[in-house]
Design a protein that fits this description.
mainly alpha; elongated
Length: about 60
Amino acid sequence: MKLSAPTFIVWLLALILAALAILSKFIGIPVIGGFIKQYDFWVMTAAYGLLLIGTLFKGK
């Protein structure tokens, strides 16, 4: 299996998701009506999953 770097869009989306999860967890900023604060672990997991998928599939 050959891995490739994720595209900039995938990387940026994962960064935004991770930043929102961190901000809601440690700073207490209620983002999107408290949804991210309630599911911060799963939002962070989704961010890393997005990076994994972006690495497994070849970008353009």
